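Hey, I was hoping to borrow your eyes for a little while. No rush at all, and the record is pasted right below.
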Amino acid sequence: MKAKELAEIIGITEANLSILNSGKAKAIRFSTLDAICKALHCQPGDIIKQQ
């Protein structure tokens, strides 16, 4: 899935999705995390990387 498509599905801008993807985000809303997981058919632990 392309970033543009995912951003549209979850209701955020491509720029904000890029910030999340780069690891530069300070926080993420639970609703956004839930929407990402639903769109990608995954669990939060599948996409969250501990630093």
Remarks:
- The first helix runs from residue 3 to 10.
- The chain has a mean pLDDT of 93.
- The chain has one domain: 3-47.
